[in-house]
Amino acid sequence: MDVSRAEGCSSSSIPISPQWVYDVFVSFRGANTRKKFTSHLFVALEDNGFRTFRDDKELERGEFISDGLLKAIEGSRISLIVFSKDYVGSRWCLDELMKIMDCRETFKQIVVPIFYDVVPSDVRKHMGVLQDAFANHKKRLREEPNGKVEKWRAALTKAVNLSGRHLLNDGYFPRPF
What we know:
The protein has 177 residues and is of the alpha/beta class. α5 packs parallel to α6 (91-107) and α6 (91-107) packs across α9. The chain has helices spanning 3-7, 30-33, 37-47, 55-58, 65-74, 91-107, 120-124, 129-140, 148-160, and strands at 22-27, 52-53, 76-83, 110-116, 165-167. Its EC number is 3.2.2.6.
């Protein structure tokens, strides 16, 4: 893909939608939700005919994980972002989030936030564990000149202000999105 289009660097370039490989990309923190909510989500999507990207099945052995994930995001028509308690603690999740929001702007990708066992207003305000996670990132990346933490915060703010779903970890999941 032309880097100038992907990063929006050229005002004269016209974004061209990628050829969709997947219907849905799900961004989630594996430690929090892989064997719980997201495994059920994948089954429901696949049972209803959606082609989903699954990192544990789709990434080719020997491929750099980050490259494969970024290509999968670009090749997906829809991205679901499962915000959980430790989502923001993961630099990989935040990099995925930035890419998803870039694809939303560039390719008009549909993005739906899902607040899983977190209070949406806490995520919107970057409160509680999110505040601590960003403080830790800022401490670890303080010498990074490109303001990565601020870019992550901006992507998070854009994503959480989209219309989405709020699900509590009480074993009950309402019917489809």
